[in-house]
Design a protein that fits this description.
This is Leptin receptor gene-related protein. By secondary structure, this protein is mainly α. The chain has one domain. The protein contains 5 helices and no strands. Helix 1 (about 1-20) runs antiparallel to helix 5 and helix 3 packs antiparallel against helix 4 (about 50-75). The relative contact order is 0.20.
């Protein structure tokens, strides 16, 4: 189920870039945020001796997630991409981040008090 949800999200992002009506690959830059999203949490889990580190990790993670939603909106407002491409990218973001969240709650939260 997680693989299907992630592949649907990535397919929407590829469609936002590759459809002949849009034909610009700028929305593909949100994929960088998908790789950066779990890093603050993974780093904070290594040294869980203080709550301040967990709060900083959550703040950084939320900043990365919000940036991935803001990038297509800013590109559409600047008329670099079309609004249809922006909406497809936002829908893809929801699918991919739902997959990441389900993975953390399903598999990683058992041995960690981070969440």
């Amino acid at each position: 189920m997680l693989a299907m949800l992630c592949s649907i999200g990535l397919t929407m992002i590829i469609l936002a870039c590759a459809l002949p009506a849009y034909n610009l690959w700028w929305p593909m830059f949100v994929v960088v945020f998908y790789f950066l999203c779990p890093l603050p949490t993974k780093i904070a889990k290594r040294g869980m001796q203080s709550d301040g580190r967990a709060a900083n990790a959550m703040f950084a993670t939320i900043g990365i997630v919000m940036s991935s939603f803001a990038l297509p909106i800013v590109l559409a407002r600047a008329e670099v991409i079309q609004w249809g491409s922006c909406l497809l990218t936002l829908a893809g973001n929801v699918g991919v981040y739902a997959t990441i969240l389900a993975y953390y709650f399903g598999f990683e939260s058992i041995d960690s008090g981070m969440w």
